[in-house]
Amino acid sequence: MKAYFYSEDPGDQREDHDSGHPVSTHYLSQLGVLYHHCPSVSAVDQIASERSYRNRDEIIVSPEKMGPVYEEKVRMFFKEHLHEDEEIRYILDGNGFFDVRNASDEWVRIRLEKDDLIILPSGIFHRFTTDNKNYIKAMRLFKDEPKWTPLNRAPELEKNPHRKSYLQDKSPKAGMMT
């Protein structure tokens, strides 16, 4: 895992966009984002048990697997949104990026690779993209039945109870620097 402030320089979303300003796992935790290195599925099982994740599946995001809808899906995943449940991903193969907003509304980019597990809290604005290799295989974990509904960023979402709870719990700490 590598985390840093996102550079807004022009270019494809799948490029690194590394600003040269790194972000620590401690800073991520202040945003409510939890990171774990899990060299085995048994390590994932332990976290799943501790956090009451009962369901899981696997997804491959690649042109070979998704065919002609790949580019459309990658653009869709990259639209800024939030979920009303935690988003938990364990990377089985390949690489990708999760971008999350901090309290100053800046993007923090998190590059994930094999054996990385990330937990995004409900209510955090985020987006996802593959890297320029266009391939990632991930395990998705869920507390209950899978919920896929992304709520795209809009002013009315500031009134969403999950967003309000996130802001109440995390924002004062999230404005601090790395």
From TrEMBL:
Cofactor(s) this protein cannot do without: Fe(2+); Ni(2+)
Binding site for Ni(2+): H81, H83, E87, H126
Region named Disordered: 1-22, 152-178
Pfam families, per the entry: ARD
Positions annotated to bind Fe(2+): H81, H83, E87, H126
Protein name: Acireductone dioxygenase
Cofactor mode of binding and number, as noted: Binds either 1 Fe or Ni cation per monomer. Iron-binding promotes an acireductone dioxygenase reaction producing 2-keto-4-methylthiobutyrate, while nickel-binding promotes an acireductone dioxygenase reaction producing 3-(methylsulfanyl)propanoate.
Localization of this protein: Cytoplasm; Nucleus
Lineage: Eukaryota, Fungi, Dikarya, Ascomycota, Pezizomycotina
Role played: Catalyzes 2 different reactions between oxygen and the acireductone 1,2-dihydroxy-3-keto-5-methylthiopentene (DHK-MTPene) depending upon the metal bound in the active site. Fe-containing acireductone dioxygenase (Fe-ARD) produces formate and 2-keto-4-methylthiobutyrate (KMTB), the alpha-ketoacid precursor of methionine in the methionine recycle pathway. Ni-containing acireductone dioxygenase (Ni-ARD) produces methylthiopropionate, carbon monoxide and formate, and does not lie on the methionine recycle pathway.
EC number: 1.13.11.54, 1.13.11.53
Gene Ontology CC terms: cytoplasm; nucleus
Keyword Nucleus annotated: yes
Keywords, sorted A to Z: Amino-acid biosynthesis, Cytoplasm, Dioxygenase, Iron, Metal-binding, Methionine biosynthesis, Nickel, Nucleus, Oxidoreductase
GO-annotated molecular function: acireductone dioxygenase (Ni2+-requiring) activity; acireductone dioxygenase [iron(II)-requiring] activity; iron ion binding; nickel cation binding
Protein family membership: Belongs to the acireductone dioxygenase (ARD) family.
Family matches, as InterPro entries: ARD, ARD_euk, RmlC-like_jellyroll, RmlC_Cupin_sf
Superkingdom of this protein's organism: Eukaryota
Any one GO biological process: L-methionine salvage from methylthioadenosine
Catalytic reactions of this protein: 1,2-dihydroxy-5-(methylsulfanyl)pent-1-en-3-one + O2 = 3-(methylsulfanyl)propanoate + CO + formate + 2 H(+); 1,2-dihydroxy-5-(methylsulfanyl)pent-1-en-3-one + O2 = 4-methylsulfanyl-2-oxobutanoate + formate + 2 H(+)
Pathway linked to the protein: Amino-acid biosynthesis; L-methionine biosynthesis via salvage pathway; L-methionine from S-methyl-5-thio-alpha-D-ribose 1-phosphate: step 5/6
Biased composition (Basic and acidic residues): 11-20, 155-172
Enzyme class at the top of the EC tree: oxidoreductase
Keyword Iron tagged: yes
